[in-house]
């Protein structure tokens, strides 16, 4: 039988070559060598190349300038000087004490002005600076050359009278009106409608700025009372003619039927409910109220211009009882 072969041993790896040793530097000098070649011919060529580059830059700059000039001329001729965009008229839609003429003057617009160049934000600001103006809406109609102004004016509900601050009710220029938000604004012209408004007299008013709401508790309460009394007037009660803020806690209301009623600044709802009951009783019994003080919570003092009919209200007089004398029994 053949004998088994022995496993052959792995072949030995060849030895790595030894690294070459670099010779040690003993010393040396490093020098920068400029390899640029300079000659008259080369300088002449470089000068011509620089001239060509400058010519190209100048030509490009001239082309850009000509382009912008052309655009400017086109814009001026096609838009700015185009009669289609000229302002022909100003239409004002508003309702209130401020006249249309004064609104137009405040715009500072001129006929023939270009509609595209009008600063709409500045125009809006100028109109909002008018004290009677509450809101502004502006529209431009390029086809008709029309500027439409929709002005929302503050609606006056009363005159504010304070001679100490130069506010006199019912007079133009010095008279000031109030809206429901307690914003005062001067009255330009007194019409019949404005002359019929009630007057709020407030001698102790500290400040007033036209077009700015007055932050005052007594004045706010007076406006609330005025609104409630106007609603009752529409239901048949006498109309209020004036409110006089006498003290920090009381107001005096004068009505068209010559009645004078004192209200407190607080708890107006309770006082108005009592007033409604008294007015109803007075109407049923034909009483003519002279004065009424609703500050009192009990035993409300009230006077009448004519002797009132109190039938059925006064207690019946007691029946007199006569005691007979009796003799004592003996």
UniProtKB/TrEMBL annotation:
GO terms for biological process: cell septum assembly. The keyword Cell division applies. The chain crosses the membrane at residues 55-75. Residues 86-142 form the POTRA domain. Gene3D superfamilies: membrane protein fhac (3.10.20.310). Residues 1-10 have a biased composition (Low complexity). PANTHER family: CELL DIVISION PROTEIN FTSQ (PTHR35851). This is Cell division septal protein FtsQ.
């Amino acid at each position: 039988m053949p004998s088994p072969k022995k496993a052959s041993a792995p072949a030995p790896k060849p030895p790595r070559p030894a690294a070459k040793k670099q010779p040690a530097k003993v010393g040396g000098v490093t020098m920068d060598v400029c390899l640029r070649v300079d000659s008259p011919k080369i300088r002449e060529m470089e000068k011509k190349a620089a001239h060509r580059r400058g010519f190209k830059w100048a030509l490009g700059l001239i082309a850009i300038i000509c382009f912008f000039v052309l655009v400017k001329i086109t814009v001026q001729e096609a838009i700015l000087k185009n009669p289609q965009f000229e302002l022909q008229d100003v239409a004002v839609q508003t309702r209130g004490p401020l006249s249309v003429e004064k609104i137009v003057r405040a715009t500072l617009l001129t006929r023939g002005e270009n509609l595209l160049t009008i600063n709409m934000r500045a125009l809006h600001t100028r109109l909002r600076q008018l004290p009677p103006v509450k809101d502004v809406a502006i529209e431009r109609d390029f086809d008709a050359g029309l500027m439409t102004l929709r002005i929302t004016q503050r609606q006056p509900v009363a005159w504010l009278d304070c001679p100490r601050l130069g506010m006199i009710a019912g007079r133009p220029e010095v008279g000031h009106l109030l809206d429901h938000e307690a914003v005062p604004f001067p009255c330009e012209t007194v019409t019949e409608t404005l002359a019929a408004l009630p007057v709020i007299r407030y001698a102790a008013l500290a400040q007033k700025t036209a077009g700015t709401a007055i932050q005052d508790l007594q004045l706010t309460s007076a406006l609330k009372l005025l609104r409630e009394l106007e609603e009752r007037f529409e239901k048949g009660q006498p109309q209020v003619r004036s409110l006089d803020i006498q003290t920090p806690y009381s107001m005096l209301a004068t009505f068209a039927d010559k009645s004078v009623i004192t209200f407190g600044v607080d708890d107006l709802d309770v006082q108005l409910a009592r007033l409604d009951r008294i007015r109803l009783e007075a109407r049923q019994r034909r009483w003519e109220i002279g004065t009424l003080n609703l500050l009192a919570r009990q035993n409300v003092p009230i006077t009448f211009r004519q002797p009132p009919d109190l039938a059925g209200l006064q207690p019946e007089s007691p029946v007199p009882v006569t005691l007979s004398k009796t003799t004592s029994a003996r």
